[in-house]
Amino acid sequence: MKGKLEEPVISAPKLDMKMAAEVERTLSPGADGGRQFDMDDFDILDAEQGADARSLELKGHVGFDSLPDQLVNKSVSGGFCFNILCVGETGVGKSTLMDTLFNTQFEDEPAAHDVPGVHLKSKTYEIQESNVRLKLNIVYTVGFGDQINKEDSYKPIVEYIDQQFENYLQEELKIKRGLHMYHDTRVHACLYFITPTGHSLKSLDLVTMKKLDSKVNIIPIIAKADTISKNELHKFKIKIMSELVSNGVQIYQFPTDDETVAELNATMNGHLPFAVVGSTDEVKVGNKMVRARVYPWGTVQVENENHCDFVKLREMLVRTNMEDLRETTHTRHYELFRRCRLEEMGFVDDDSDNKPFSLHETYEAKRVEHLNELQRKEEEMRQMFVVRVKEKEGELKEAEKELHAKFDQLKRQHSDEKKKLEEKKKMLEEEINLFNKKKQAAMAAQQQAQQAAASATQTIPKAHKKKSRPPSRVWRLVGCWAFPPTDSHPGTPDWRHPASSDVHRRNVLQNLFPSY
Length: 516
Ligand SMILES: Nc1nc2c(ncn2[C@@H]2O[C@H](COP(=O)(O)OP(=O)(O)OP(=O)(O)O)[C@@H](O)[C@H]2O)c(=O)[nH]1
Ligand SMILES: [Mg+2]
What we know:
Coiled coil: 360-445
Number of helices: 14
Helix content: 40-55%
Strand order of the largest sheet: 2-3-1-4-5-6
Domain Septin-type G: 78-344
Protein name: Septin-11-like isoform X1
Bound molecules: guanosine-5'-triphosphate, magnesium ion
GO molecular function, one term: GTPase activity
Shape: elongated
InterPro entries: G_SEPTIN_dom, P-loop_NTPase, Septin
């Protein structure tokens, strides 16, 4: 993407040895393991080789004085990269300021206020000014300051920064390194947007800046500075700086070791934190168009130094110290990360006997350490397994015991019930025998009664036969005996039922013999 950038302000480079060394480092950042040359290095080189090297004078022009130019040209043709991290609450003006700073429109959607946690979004743009190409990576925080519990809000930011260092380190450690092609995403500058409360820093700001200060160059800025009065802004700046100092937060200091910019940078350090206003809207003021924010009571001009510090920020961040920010990132922050990580991996510069570091020995020591650790873990797991097996065995034995006890109890219950049932069966059989006996007796009695009835019929005189007379009481009773009542004649006893036939017989006998 090509931004509609302002007039280039790149002045002809002053090519001295220091610059040459810087350019050399820019061109091959990994060639010396990330080490940067400066004048001291050349002095050391001279001191080390001085004994052998003889100074000679050239008799004519050879042409290697063009080396710095060659480096600059190569550097320019390769392009540069610069990575900015914008940390600040949702809606504080991050995107607007980036658009204002680079005088273009980066596509960025506003973030929602209800995201559950903080995360980062990053986009890379290619912009060009004159013949200088810049690969610009802008990273924004999303959801920063929106959660009720802000305890872990800084973590995703720290993780992001570390991850970019880690990626670079992994590339550096490769046998076939491609650092000249590598897209370096290490964060060079962190613009920390302070909400213009006019009071003091929030604890979230202090905690986050404290966690970041050893990893990145922090440039604190007061966002939306047009919402705060001049007096309040002055006091707010003092308050912020005193809070940063008292909490030991290290912010980026513009370098004062280069005499060409020392004075300017020293003055600018005194203006921190910059109070900025962002706007891409153009308004006619006098006879020229300026970027400004228009209010009913007046117009705030973004690039008017009486209105805000936007110009100071742009001057420091882009025009004067962009290279220093890149360099500090590499030599200080990345170096610290690299050292910690390599030490973590077991690398040291000198061993305990002050012998020089041997990669092979370190690798072997690390391998042995790793194997020992593996064996220890294996043994631990084996012991744990044995303990677990024993525990399980005990549990199984206990369960077996319980099952046996249950089985015995069921067996006892079963035999008790069997006994009871056999007794019942015996009683029932006795009852059946008794019943059968009674039944036989009843049947015998019935047969007798039938025989008696048959013989009585034979003795009845013929005359009687003709005249129908009601049977006598005895005959009625005998008939009753002979033809006992059935279920089909209710009200009369059933002779087949042993109890009923007893009752019936007793009734018959009582009718015959009242004294029975
Ligand atoms: N008063 C004032 N308003 C501003 C300023 N900068 C941006 N704004 C306004 O603030 C609102 C949010 O601005 P953005 O730039 O989208 O804020 P942001 O921090 O990128 O927001 P998120 O990406 O959603 O977190 C917009 O309405 C801007 O016009 C400023 O300097 N002063
Ligand atoms: Mg935004």
